[in-house]
Amino acid sequence: MPPPLTLADLAPERFDTVAVASVEPVGRLFGRRVPLRRFLREGDGGGAYRLPICTSALVWDLAQEPGAETPFAGFHTGWQDVVLVPDLSTLRPYPGAERTAFVMCDVVEEEHGDPVGIAPRTVLRAQVERARAAGFEVLLGSELEFYVFRQSYRDARLARFRDLEPTTLVRSDYSIVGQGALEGFIGRVRAAMDSSGIPVDACQAEYGLGQWEVNLEHAPALETADRHAVYKAGVKELAAAEGLSATFMAKPSAADMGSSCHLHVSLVRMADDTPAFPDALNPFLGGLMEHLPETTLLFAPFVNSYKRHVGDMAFAGGPIAWGHDNRTVTFRVIGSGPSLRIEHRFAGADTNAHLAAAALIAAGLDGIERSLDPGPALTGNAYERSDVPRAPSSLGEAADAFEASDWVAATFGKDVREHYAAMARAEWRAHLSAVTDWEIDRGFEQA
């Protein structure tokens, strides 16, 4: 698919601002909005604007606190700058903001211009290039769920996120009439994404009260991850403009369903543009199954991520098994012929798509290289099987497995392993030091 915009399209009568951004480890876009004239005037080689920005963005946690102690950046380095270098193939209108273009950037070191190895886009690009060296193009599709509430972000925060009004008041999963409750907003999301070169495949009301799902068409893995990040930011900006609030938390309510991010993966042989599945399906599955425990952290990066996996109605992955059209396993095989693909069901809506895609590709390629056998397909309810292994059930367990893995260090680099383990440790420590309403309600009088 050609880029939605070229530099020649950045005419002052259409645009006055360019959002220059990349992806933080926690999955947010970071960067700056710059005037169009500056983007074009200061560009190196016709618009390749270079934006210095503090390394704090690659260490921040969800609360924008530098809790992690990493060799990459901190007070010990003076919080040095990195540089965002636009990838002009990603230039597009920014969904949710008028007269604003968007460009995704690679993160490079300020002095020599080398790629920053721990940056999410760098991590994914390395695995995409590895797949291409093996003769495969990785295609990825993204199914992303989220909740939308009637209150604005400001009002929701002032209410401490209590008693928010969901945008559906009855279960409306797949209901065409139920989808009408928010079709004005969802329709604007579809239109904004399509005009930004982020084509929507389908959308629906989901089971949770106020829960929605918008699926994106499949594309090469890096393009899908880029679209995914812009889409999440665009949904939030569109919601804010209408006085609504949208959340991509994996489990925003203990009383309702979690929100998933199902990733659909297939391989195409670059030599003749033919599907590599089913020949490579089994070993790819074998790699996914073997490496899920040590890469869980890259699919589920926060304390809240694991709460989506609790309960009889989780439909969230966890059992390390595969099956044909079986939603109780983590690796669901669906489709046939050219559409044959694996649905990776473990990640929640809070995942960083660049890191999740990198973990998925790396594990699958290792399975192909080592001819790993995934074993027979599982039938029936995987949650009831005591003989099926499970992925880590908490961020602490996931951090232990990630940090102890020699395969992670060999595949992604020791710097990546150290950086993301440190970020997970900081998140876990913050969680352990917090006193929650649940603890007070249970223990204040009775302990």
Structure in words:
The chain has 447 residues and is an alpha+beta fold. The protein is built from 12 helices and 15 strands. It has helices at 36-41, 120-133, 153-158, 176-179, 183-195, 221-241, 281-299, 353-370, 395-404, 406-412, 414-433, 437-443; strands spanning 17-23, 29-35, 51-54, 81-86, 92-93, 100-109, 136-149, 200-205, 211-220, 245-247, 261-269, 274-275, 322-324, 331-334, 341-344. The strands form 2 sheets. Strands 7, 8, 9, 10, 11, 12, 13, 14 and 15 form a 9-stranded mixed β-sheet that branches. The protein is globular and about 65 Å long. The protein starts with 16 loop residues before the first strand and ends with a helix. The mean pLDDT is 93.
Short description:
By secondary structure, the chain is α+β, with helices and mostly antiparallel strands. The protein contains 12 helices and 15 strands. The radius of gyration is 22 Å and the shape is globular.
Task: Return the string of H and E elements.
Answer: EEHEEEEHEHHHEEHEEEHEEEHHHHH
Sheet with most strands = 9 strands, mixed
End-to-end C-alpha gap: 61 Å
Task: Please indicate the percent range of residues in DSSP E strands (runs of 2 or more).
Answer: 15-25%
Indicate the radius of gyration in whole angstroms. Answer: 22 Å
Overall pLDDT score: 93
Total helical elements: 12
How many strand units? 15
Spans of at least 5 consecutive residues whose pLDDT stays below 50 are none
Tell me the helix content: 25-40%
Approximate shape = globular
Global structural class: alpha+beta
